Target: Serine hydroxymethyltransferase
Amino acid sequence: MHTPRIPDLAAADPRIAELIEAEAQRQHDKLRMIASENYVSTAVLEATGSVLTNKYSEGYASKRYYEGQQLIDQIETLAVDRAKALFGVDHANVQPYSGSPANLAVYLAFLQPGDAVMGMSLPMGGHLTHGWSVSATGKWFRSVRYGVRQETGRTDMDQVRELALAERPKVIFCGGTAIPRTIDFPAFAEIAREIDAVLVADIAHIAGLIAGGAHPSPVGHADVLTTTTHKTLRGPRGAMIMSTAEKASAIDKAVFPGLQGGPHNHTTAGIAVALHEASQPGFRDYAHQVVANAKALAAALVERGFDLISGGTDNHLILVDLTSKGIGGKPAAQALDRAGIELNYNTVPFDTRKPFDPSGIRLGTPALTTRGLTEAQMPQVAAWIDEAVGASAAADEAALDKISGEVRDLLAGYPMPGYAAA
Model:
């Protein structure tokens, strides 16, 4: 059952309570391997479900437009101070509602419509808000896109420099949503300095790894860091923008009043709790275990004949091209879900298929690491993935059901935050 318990909700709205309980059960029974998902602690759940959701707090601590902020100011200040200490930054803004608005604040802070912005192309592993054509960031600004080398699957830094010198973007984004290798922040910083551009490190996927010392930090290289607070950081669905002292005022004005009104105080509290948790010694162990699990899983998949973009991973994320398996990413992901393994279909670099029916799947190890799985279980996970992909190609539903039962049996031995057996 869901924890914390929800008896009042069950009495007031039984249908919603029933669906929440079913979702808790689903999360418990499946190998959740969507690279951008995780489990928050019960403490974070309690903070985000608190009476803080009742309060409006437009402005910043000690500079509000509504009264009654004596305690809200303390909560937000705690979150800010914890972010600054954990990441070693001059400034932190914890008010953005999610990662996309956080990135939009960067545009508002440092660009005018029509200015050039550089980011990794979405099909190569970038994010919509780094200037892709269907996003407002690609419609209102001149997008300059870099990619990866076809022979290595790694960021083409020569292309980044050539494009930067030719196009002179005012902002350069590094980071993305499907990058399995270490981001070379010093190299990006050198290019940004060469053209006097603002370097923005979008660390949404790797923030928890950076906090835990399992990935190099962009601090000291990037002027601005944007991140979600969930994913590897294991906080609520929110975002932060961190920066040098020089960029702080522009960032704060862009967030409020530039893009949004009152912050979500219950989310701010959840972020503060998650940042406190991330400062504890055990979080460092978790971050390094995430990477160890991903490397072990990648090696096991390669042994089973899977083609991994860049040949492996340095972080939490694995991107697989299924072309050689004779199946598209979408049917494979749907079959894996039926087999109790939750991930997403994903475009791979230089994909010849359409985005809604791409060649690849993207998977990660943050959530299963939170559950307590280690390298010892990764060969079995790879075996299940292999069996499920094969069963999908053969339309063998019985095999998928069998795997699903085996997954449930394994996970019964690994507790889940937010769920307790009845």
